[in-house]
From TrEMBL:
The active site is at Y131 (proton donor/acceptor), K159 (schiff-base intermediate with substrate). Signal peptide: none annotated. This is Dihydrodipicolinate synthase family protein. One of its GO terms (biological process) is small molecule metabolic process. The keyword Ribonucleoprotein does not apply. It is found in: Cytoplasm. It comes from Thermococcus peptonophilus. Homotetramer. Pyruvate binds at T44, V204.
Length: 296
């Protein structure tokens, strides 16, 4: 797996039910523009506000609709037995990968985190992508990532949503150097280029829901050694990633940006998240107009 992976928003109707038609439309759009992978039940997809049954429904629906990209399913929970259940379900429906963040709410030491992931790896066969997002969950140290990667072949890579070039550097130098097939992805749009320069494999980035052309052009230009063009699109991604600073949550930022660009996905978040108001929406519109110009 490589390239531009989209952590998918979950579209909702005004009554908070899942908007299946909008989901179908968005998945069709992302595949037509050529993203390399689609990740359902992600942080951006508000997985903590979904029931286990809804997460399975979305995983199944996504598997039905994603036909031309890598297909990843989130299986994060603070309940290890639920992680195993969701991972087995993803395996049974034919997902390509599961993505598992560490347990949240309860602080855990390295041995507990190792046990959490090793148990899932021993009870399932599907490739696992570790997901380090320390602002939301227990953090995965580089030595722990290395231990898991070297002991379990099914632990296939990592998504690092961490604002640190050094963390990505260390995973690449300490883990990928010893296990060449271990995939390293940034979770932040503004870190895509430096991740590629360091030897990483791509990114799993939420702004690709509404502006995937920027990520795809950067990735293509870099691989074709058109570095001036890659720099240009990296600067655009750096600017557009400020959308997160304008809103109260990832979900609000992305759904307001999607509204501004004319997507049919409604600006609805499930409680306890709330959509930001008109003032934030106008700031996001202005940011997109500045970065995307006539493409807006």
């Amino acid at each position: 797996m490589h390239g531009v992976i989209v952590p998918l928003v979950t579209p909702f109707n005004e009554d908070y039910s899942i908007d299946v038609s909008a989901l179908e439309e968005h998945l069709d759009y992302l595949q037509k523009v050529g993203v390399h992978g689609i990740f359902i039940n992600a942080t951006t997809g508000e997985f903590t506000s979904l029931s286990k049954e809804e997460r399975k429904f979305l995983a199944e629906k996504g598997r039905e609709l994603v036909t031309s990209a890598f297909y990843l399913v989130g299986a994060t929970s603070s309940n290890m037995f639920e992680v195993v259940e969701l991972t087995k379900h993803a395996q049974d429906i034919g997902a390509d990968y599961v993505v598992i963040a560490p347990p949240y709410y309860c602080p855990l030491n390295e041995e507990a985190l190792f046990k959490h992931y090793s148990t899932v790896a021993e009870k399932t066969d599907i490739p696992i992508i570790l997901y380090n997002i320390p602002v939301c969950a227990n953090s995965l140290s580089v030595p722990l990532v290395k231990r898991l990667a070297l002991e379990y072949p099914s632990i296939a890579g990592i998504k690092a949503t961490i604002d640190s070039v050094n963390y990505i550097r260390d995973v690449i130098l300490d883990v990928k150097e010893e296990r060449k097939d271990f995939a390293v992805f940034t979770g932040l749009d503004q870190h895509l280029l430096n991740t590629l320069i360091l030897g990483g494999d791509g990114g799993v980035m939420a702004c690709a829901n509404f502006a995937p052309e920027l990520h795809l052009r950067l990735y293509k230009a870099f691989n074709e050694k058109r570095f001036e063009e890659a720099f240009e699109y990296s600067r655009k991604l750096a600017k557009i990633s400020k959308v997160y600073d304008l809103a109260s949550s990832f979900g609000s930022a992305i759904k307001l940006a999607m509204k501004a660009r004319g997507f049919s996905i409604k600006p609805v978040l499930r409680p306890p998240y709330v959509m930001d108001g008109r003032e934030v929406e106008e700031k996001i519109k202005a940011l997109l107009a500045e970065v995307l110009g006539s493409h807006q």
